[in-house]
Amino acid sequence: MSETIGIARAKTSEDDFMSLGTKSAFDVFREKLALKVLEFTTAHKPFDEQCARMDFRDIMETSGKESERKYGYVRAEDVKTVKFDLDKYGDKDRFEKIGDDVDRQDRVMEGMRTQVIIGHTIKYVCKRGHGVSVFLPNDVWEERFGEKKKETKV
């Protein structure tokens, strides 16, 4: 016995169906933002994701209003063709360093539980006051902030 789910009918002129699987401008932006966040996270650098989201919403709102003023309605082409640069949200001058915390992890060595330093968490604040934390493993932290060790010849 086969059951039919929903109503199968042809589209009339009054219907306004939305195609499934299409992506909105915000969906495309979120994909690009996720890739950019991944890029900065793997490089152990700060990225201001909150400001990027807020600025994109503002730009979409502005372009929608302009389209409505010009044509009387919001055209999909005007909203989908918005250009947005994500690289500026990872600039070093955008952030102020406010802290450096040492991260430790419990490990059992020779039958004793000890804490081992596994890295550092650097805390930043952006221009608007959003907090961003970046974890740096020991080797990366020593490269960027630690004292350079002199090589000794044997």
Keywords:
154 residues, elongated, disordered C terminus, alpha+beta
Shape: elongated
Q: Mind describing the biggest β-sheet?
A: 3 strands, antiparallel
**Element order, helices and strands?**
HHHEEEH
Looking at how many chains there are and whether they match, the oligomeric state comes to: single chain
Instruction: Summarize model confidence as the mean pLDDT.
Output: 82
Poorly predicted spans: 148-154
Helix content: 25-40%
- Count of discrete structural domains: 1
Strand tally is 3
**SS-derived structural category:** alpha+beta
Distance between the termini: 84 Å
Strand order of the largest sheet: 1-2-3
* Structure annotation, total helices: 4
Q: Tell me the strand percentage band.
A: 15-25%
Computed CA radius of gyration, to the nearest angstrom: 25 Å
Describe this structure in words.
The chain is of the alpha+beta class. The protein has one domain (25-144). The protein is built from 4 helices and 3 strands; from the N terminus they run H-H-H-E-E-E-H. The N and C termini lie far apart (84 Å).
SSE layout:
Elements: H1 25-42, H2 49-71, H3 76-80, E1 95-109, E2 112-126, E3 131-137, H4 138-144
Antiparallel strand pairs: 1-2, 2-3
